[in-house]
Amino acid sequence: MPKALLLILDGWGYRKEKRGNAIALAKTPVMDKLWKSHPHTLLKAAGPAVGLPAGFIGNSEVGHLTLGAGRVIDSDMIRINKAIKDGSFFRNKVLLETIRHAKQRKEKLHFMGLLSDAGVHSHIQHLFALLELAKREGVKEVYVHAFLDGRDTPPKSAAKHITLLQHKMRQLGIGTLATMMGRYYAMDRDNRWNREHKAYDCMVNCIGRKIHDPLKALQDAYSRGETDEFVKPIILTNKCIVDEHDSVIFFNFRSDRARELTRAFVLGQFKKFKRKKIIDLHFATLTHYDSLVKVPVAFPLVIPKKTLGEAIAKSGLTQLRIAETEKWAHVTY
């Protein structure tokens, strides 16, 4: 029986102009031969073509999802954006229950996630909407744990996002930037638990560099050779600790780099590193991250029907999916 191969080369693209185009300037004899001797076409892999807003770069998750579905599916970012626009975000049952858990106990509400406007793993506007919701609900203590990007954004662009966050918190009269660290520590996806341990210790045990000015802390990190992605955990207030009876909302919408830290916070049986057990912690996530963790999800998983894999299976054919550890989830799409 003839065999078919769907091979995905992450980051491979096409552009006529050669200047600054690594692929066009490289020696690629195999690809050149395939291009000349076989039928070919080009696929759009960004913006509305993969369920993202216009002007947003594509990424592995939405690219694989679109290929697997064979049609455009609204990305989680689009779903959340629409909910903010139509107001349903501010009536979301999971978000309200999580916020009210902290309010009723007169404890702290924490928002953690990637402080970025790239729209790959998170978006700063979603954090702003959460702050607005906390304001409406009258929560007194709100703390933000910011993971700096520098991977999907320029390597020294965090000051812009920190400044925007500070302005929004002043405007609303709510929120304190409690900790910040590079995504290298808080968003691993390849079982490098020593990194996640440092992120967890910063937020739960207040272990890290202590400085109260986030912009100065950022400049100090740059002077040590740490760009945004690699900024070591920094404590910005003495009240940073995620503690008993608190509430946490992890506002990343992409799951692959949010799983490990979520597991560290919520799994009953956890042996990757020694951790403090936090009693009555109400932990919620913006989207579905992981079947191993049973936490409230504000925007539950939407599973497309009639996908490529489903069609192959229904035809009685066998399929084998292979990926490196960091991409295993994507080949299931």
SSE blueprint and pairings:
Blueprint lengths: L21 H4 L3 H9 L22 H10 L6 H11 L6 H13 L3 E7 L8 H14 L4 E7 L9 H15 L3 E7 H4 L6 H13 L3 E2 L3 H10 L10 E2 L11 E4 L8 H8 L15 E6 L9 E3 L8 H7 L19
Parallel strand pairs: 1-2, 1-6, 2-3, 4-5, 6-7, 7-8
Antiparallel strand pairs: 3-5
Helix pairs in contact: 5-6, 6-7, 9-11
Describe this structure as you would to a colleague.
The chain is α/β, with parallel strands linked by helices. The chain has two domains: 82 residues, no CATH class; 210 residues, BPG-independent phosphoglycerate mutase, domain B (2,3-Bisphosphoglycerate-independent phosphoglycerate mutase, substrate-binding domain, 3-Layer(aba) Sandwich). It is 35% helix and 11% strand. The protein is built from twelve helices and eight strands. Strands 4-5-3-2-1-6-7-8 form an eight-stranded mixed sheet, with helices on both faces. α11 links the parallel β6 and β7. α6 packs parallel to α7.
Describe the sheet with the most strands: 8 strands, mixed
Mean pLDDT: 95
- In the CATH hierarchy, the third-tier topology of the largest domain is known as 2,3-Bisphosphoglycerate-independent phosphoglycerate mutase, substrate-binding domain
State the secondary-structure class: alpha/beta
CATH class placement of the largest domain: Alpha Beta
Q: How many separate domains make up the residues?
A: 2
Instruction: Give the low-confidence spans.
Output: none
How large a portion of the residues is in β-strands, by DSSP E? 5-15%
CATH architecture of the largest domain: 3-Layer(aba) Sandwich
The percentage helix is 25-40%
General form = globular
Major beta sheet, strand line-up? 4-5-3-2-1-6-7-8
